[in-house]
UniProtKB/TrEMBL annotation, chains A, B:
Residues 44-216 form the Oxidoreductase molybdopterin-binding domain. The lineage of its organism: Bacteria, Bacillati, Bacillota, Bacilli, Bacillales. Residues 10-23 have a biased composition (Polar residues). Residues 1-23 are annotated as: Disordered. Transmembrane segments: none annotated. InterPro entries: Ig_E-set, MoCF_OxRdtse_dimer, Mopterin_OxRdtase_euk, OxRdtase_Mopterin-bd_dom, OxRdtase_Mopterin-bd_sf. It comes from the Bacteria. This is Sulfite oxidase. It comes from Pradoshia eiseniae. It holds the Pfam family Oxidored_molyb.
Amino acid sequence: MPERKFTVKPSLTTRGLSPENQETPLEYLQTDAMNNYQFFRRNHFDYPSLNQANYRLLFGGLIKRPLSLSLQDLSRFPAKTLKVALECAGNKRGHFEPKTYGEQWGKGAISQGYWRGVPLAHILDLTGFSSHAAEVVVKGYDHGVRKGSEKNETYARSLPLEKALHLDTIIAFEYNGQPLSYKHGYPLRLIVPGWYAMASVKWVRQISVIGTSFKGAFQTNDYMYYPSQETDEGAFPVTELNVNSTIQTPLDMEVLDGSRHCIRGIAWTGKGMITRVEISLDNGESWLDADFHPPASSYEWVSWQYVWNPGKSGEYSILSRATDSIGRTQVRKAFWNRKGYGYNAMDHVRVFVY
Amino acid sequence: MPERKFTVKPSLTTRGLSPENQETPLEYLQTDAMNNYQFFRRNHFDYPSLNQANYRLLFGGLIKRPLSLSLQDLSRFPAKTLKVALECAGNKRGHFEPKTYGEQWGKGAISQGYWRGVPLAHILDLTGFSSHAAEVVVKGYDHGVRKGSEKNETYARSLPLEKALHLDTIIAFEYNGQPLSYKHGYPLRLIVPGWYAMASVKWVRQISVIGTSFKGAFQTNDYMYYPSQETDEGAFPVTELNVNSTIQTPLDMEVLDGSRHCIRGIAWTGKGMITRVEISLDNGESWLDADFHPPASSYEWVSWQYVWNPGKSGEYSILSRATDSIGRTQVRKAFWNRKGYGYNAMDHVRVFVY
């Protein structure tokens, strides 16, 4: 007789396989660090091949002392551990109206856990850099033909010097106390807390200081907000996370009994801290405060809840709205942009109580 | 160093966990039999516990010779193997406009493979039945509180005598040559080819012949088409599969290069055979025949394809439309019904060619 197995667990939701793009199911978005296999996967290209045995991280450009570090060299620098939520700039793209092209991400292109690494500032302190330095370009091993282009390109992103030198911008080598997995950037991944995750370059190959504004395709073509359908007018770069919240339970269009329910979710922001999460049970007419514990750091999300006794049967339109310490708050309709980045309208689910 | 793993495979898409409802990703909908782990999971209740060692299938009601069969007893009857696609009645519910309550299934609440079992007719031939027999009720081991109700109910469905006695209505004990898995009804599952999968009762406990029309909740409350939002007027039962088709590639809102692409998908029907699958590349203005091999049986889907050279860049609205041998064809807008069953509008994806 076959073994009796009743295990019920959620799976990553596939948005694409070549390259691999799979999102985290809502059940896994928890207060604690998420397991590696629960973490959303977002790739621009196929997984790269890299020579692990001879791996060295190269530093170049406008630095005073060129440097090449083995993993062992890197381990001699002082390291720090940060709990950071990474959110894909396209998270919730599928919610835009009108629709925008690209992976139709739901609410699960976000995950969090503990990243341990060396502040980039420590290494740039050692190399020194020219007074003409303006940006730091971080290049990965992943490459291929970018969608919308004909040529072979390598994934690369730059940071303004100030962000690159922020002591929480780290070159990470561990996730939750283990070496990074290949799928999440082994051996080294840049972690840029507070920015959308396109900045957190995986499989880091080379770091260069430049004196100009970097013009890579993933910075000047993709990961730009284009407010117009027709032209590129008014375009500006995707950088910091918007203030945002997600309702995990109940699910959209769920049927519920009339008993007590816990409305539950997460809220996060790229700057400052989450200071308030509100729930509306009447489609925005009135608002109620949800409960949450203040986060230990501003780079992780808060898990909030609101205990609800529906009372009478019927349809309910439930909204969530987060506010952060710099006064940003979610609005009803997301800022539409042609490539579908940074969706942060109030979350919205409809339920029927019988 | 960690082991190097670049395996990329799709996951089931979670729609709910309690009870477990997960759908098959489009990549797994293939011409061949699908593996057990690729098969969509649709449950009304938590997985049941059942006494495997003393398992017996009971026959009762208006039969002449009451019967109780062990699995070994059942294995002495002549068995047959059928390739059957099972489709949840709620497949594509998430596509209805306006939305309907319930699991928001995408296009993956359908799967197919080889089911082996004993025709129910053989057993009813042995028991005999009264001339007053009208329906055959099949009851599973799964039970619990049904959504929209307060009381504990057991999953049960009836078939009209004619369908119950059809030689392809089988009590299945194997899937793809292996004993059924627990999640898909071990040890015995009724398989009703041509009907939506709510008729294919899992974990079969008892089969009864009755002289009336069965009034179980999964037959008179759920699995009814309610054409009106407000009243139950005009309601009629969900039975046979509608003619239908699904585009697997490209994905909705995908960005494609201008090279040759294979538009690919499946088509199926509950009565007769698929005789034609057409593609429109201009949102329904003109239609082109897709290629497919005639299926070996009318219970499996056909896999179709159309090779497309987009030629010029821009937006394309792609439709698929299947027609069956009894003259049914897909229309542009699905028949809306309050509980969201039987969605079978033409499938529709939009792509951008650069």
